[in-house]
Amino acid sequence: MSYHHLTADDIKILRSYIADPARVITEPTAHWDHDQFKTVRAMPDLVIQPATNDEVVKVVKYASDHLIPLVPRGNSTGLMGANLTIHGGISLDMVKLNRILSYDPGSLTLTVQAGARLKDIEDYLADKPFTYMPAPAMHWATIGGNVATNAGGLKAIKYGVTREHIRSLKVALTDGKLYTFGSKAVKSSSGYALKDLIIGSEGTLGVVCEVALRLYPRPRHIINAVIPFDTLKHAIQSVPAILASGVEPTTVEFMGRKVLNLWEKFYNQKFPITEGDGFIILGLDAFTPGELTAMLETAVAATKAFNAFDPVVLDAASHEAKVIWDAREALLLAIQKSTPQMDEVDVSVPINHIPDVLQRIDELEQETGMRIPNFGHAGDGNLHIYLCSDQLSATAFAQKRDLVIRELYKTAAAVDGNMSGEHGIGYARKDYFEGYYGKAYTSLLRRIKQLFDPNGVLNPDKIFPLHE
């Protein structure tokens, strides 16, 4: 695809759409050329920071009409290069669209602008009886970015991923209109669910401007139980038994001693539990203490057949619980600190097939000599698998990384899994997409893209290549 290069006249017109000239940045710095991983870098020609829906609509329309690539950007916590301006053009930086617009407890909704961070939402709701349940690890991520990747997080097993918590979206499309997809009503059997099409589309179909979030009553009682096992394999094998017991945990996370050693080293702390080589972190919430006690006893009993040690039960507000959750949430950064370069695969598989993926990881470490630490969401089958360059040359790392990625995707596909559970496909994985899901399916997605973005300017060449 041949795109138009921005001219001085283009910039003059685009600047006229933005009330504050300081929000049009003609000399972008390295701040805008990367995401969390920094494995791919691409500098925009122009950065625009809209502060109103009208500004977004005008910029998107102009970009489409003049064949200028436009990439929406949140707080750049992504890992797959989805927010990078691969073809130059405009980085539409949404961080100034960050207001809480309305709190409506009567309909259990909170409406926010797309640039509001998860932390902003948590802080706003801290003294209120309702809460926003999704809990992705990056609390400084924007809600628009979470919508774009359908982010998951620690509570997905009980409460679902971002998709289950979005009532409606306001989205700017390339035709110069702002559309509302969805409503505050709980149910809809009213035609195509375009809201759900936008969620997870990584900014390739439209630019999300506002989000109406579903709220839940805040649980009154929360505890965490860390259950050590003699091996990580036994820890993983216990999860279907926990779920079959009838308990509905908020969280079921797994991690092994090897990744915890990295956290201890790079954060200069000690994990509070010394026994065991594999761990399940079980989160439970309820409205009465009796419910909580009964669920915990049932879940722990289900683990005994898998060589579990006695659980360490923590009040959610305790210092020890904070250390354990801090360790879990910092595992990615600890691994990143341990190696010059890193990449990631976050396949999602049926929970009974997690051991198959872990076994293949062990085999690939032996076959390639590459270190592949991992942890993840045992309750929903989403694994976070990290490929570390360590002492490998750039060429050797690229070759081995490609081999490992292809083998992990092959393993996930064989057990009816998905390429990504929550981090998206972005730019880094687009060339694997058609091989995983097939030509017919990918061609159908291309036709949908063509309908929403006929000139191919919205976040081009993300998820899948624009052309076969």
Counting structural domains, the number is 4
Radius of gyration: 23 Å
Provide the CATH topology of the largest domain: Uridine Diphospho-n-acetylenolpyruvylglucosamine Reductase, domain 3
User: What's the pLDDT, averaged over the residues?
Assistant: 95
CA(first)-CA(last) distance: 12 Å
Going by helix content, strand content and strand pairing, the class is: alpha+beta
Query: Count the helices. How many?
Result: 15
Based on the coordinates given, report the CATH architecture of the largest domain: 2-Layer Sandwich
Describe the model.
The protein is of the alpha+beta class and 468 residues long. The chain has four domains: 8-96, Uridine Diphospho-n-acetylenolpyruvylglucosamine Reductase, domain 2; 100-217, Uridine Diphospho-n-acetylenolpyruvylglucosamine Reductase, domain 3 (2-Layer Sandwich), CATH 3.30.465; 221-332, Alpha-Beta Plaits (2-Layer Sandwich), CATH 3.30.70.2190; 339-425, Alpha-Beta Plaits. Helices cover 35% and strands 19% of the residues. It is built from 15 helices and 18 strands. Strand 8 (166-172) and strand 9 (178-182) form a beta hairpin.
